[in-house]
Amino acid sequence: MRNYSESLGLDISKSHFDAVLHQKKLHRQFENNQSGFKALNKWIKDQKYLWKDILVCFENTGYYSLDISYFLSSNDIDYIQEHGLQIKRSIGFRRGKSDKADAYDIALYCWQNRSNARLSTPPTIILSKLKQLNRSRDILIKQRVALKNQIQALSVVRDKAIYSEACRSLKKVTRAIDAQIKSLETTIKKVIESDPGIERNYRLCNSVKGIGPVLAIEMILHTHNFNCFDSWRKFAAYSGTVPYPYQSGSSINWKAKIHPFCDKRLKSLLTMGAISALKCDKELKQYYKKRIEEGKPKMSVINIIRNKLIARVFATVRRGTPYVMIDTYAA
Fold first, then answer.
1. What span, in angstroms and rounded, lies between the C-alpha atoms of 191 and 186?
2. Could you tell me the CA-to-CA distances from 47 to 7, 30, 54, 102, 107 in Å, in that order?
3. Which residues, including other chains, have CB under 8 Å from residue 13's CB and lie 6 or more apart?
4. Whole-Å CA distances, 58 to 10, 40, 72, 105, 222
5. What integer is the mean pLDDT of 16-44?
6. Looking at domain 6-116, which CATH architecture does it have?
7. CB 27 within 8 A of CB 104
8. What predicted TM-score, i.e. pTM, was given to this entire model?
9. Is the alpha carbon torsion for 144, 147, 151, 153 positive or negative?
10. How far apart are CA 123 and CA 69, in angstroms?
């Protein structure tokens, strides 16, 4: 870790971003595009700073912060991309809000945590493309479900002429969405095959019973192709499948519970994966029945299976060979 002499806080929005140098208490606003990044670079040089002496920090704002992360990485500039809630809670109680004030708070947070900061790296271009395609597919699937629900709801209409006319239009849109989803899935498959590392890990993930194509892609995206989590336990905590104790003194001693702060979509996919694994994995099925007979709550056992799936995927990727069912080689 470098010995930083300054911290730069960035509050990023769609069209612009506010920049604050913590030590000099200087603020300036730039456009959130390549010309704005060049202006930022010139501004830093005008302040007699070198980038190697500055630690940059900004919140993860999705697509809005993607371009600047590529700019910083390509110029070998150290930065940390932090969760907004982490910064907000570290600051304490605040009244009011503005982009300028947020940039000052981010710069302060960056300066206070510069000694133990874990530097961030942007996803590869392939991963960014895969993420955009996958999110577009999710949007279309939600629209298709909404249309199918509407068609089902119209079936109670007594006037069949009205029902058939409305359903005809909705079914036409549904067929168009089906075609777009199929096209996106074909493109996603080509993107995965274009990168040997992603294709390898995708294949290894799918070798684990209960891990389908959708969940495999989500795990690859969230882990940056298994490069940003050094253990399955950390990823399980991120996914919201780790129970934590809640204890204080002698009066408060609740049973361990899963924390609500997590990626809920990923957690939901892991739940569906665990249920799927129970249908095709004899070992997990026997384990599930045994724990239920012992009086263990069903969702608690499902959560254990979710963690088992995560552990299996990470072990399979680390080993580099497909997952093998133990009972296949049983005597």
1. 9
2. 13, 16, 12, 21, 16
3. 32, 61, 64, 99
4. 5, 14, 12, 10, 19
5. 95
6. 2-Layer Sandwich (3.30)
7. yes
8. 0.85
9. positive
10. 9
Q: Give the tens place of pLDDT for each residue, 218-273.
A: 999 999 999 988 899 999 999 999 887 777 777 776 777 777 778 889 999 999 99
Q: What is the pLDDT of residue 324?
A: 84
Asked if pLDDT for residue 163 goes beyond 90, the answer is no
Which structure tokens are listed for 152? 């089902």
Give yes or no for a contact between 188 and 134, defined as CB atoms under 8 angstroms apart. Answer: yes
DSSP 8-state symbol, 5 = S
Kindly state the tokens that stand for 330: 């049983």
Chain segment 99-120, per-residue pLDDT in tens: 899 999 999 999 998 888 889 9
The DSSP secondary structure of 51-94, one letter per residue, reads GGGEEEEEE--GGGGHHHHHHHHHTT--EEEE-HHHHHHHH---
**pLDDT the model gives residue 178:** 96
Q: Which amino acid is at 18?
A: D
Phi, psi of 35 (to 5 degrees): -65, -35
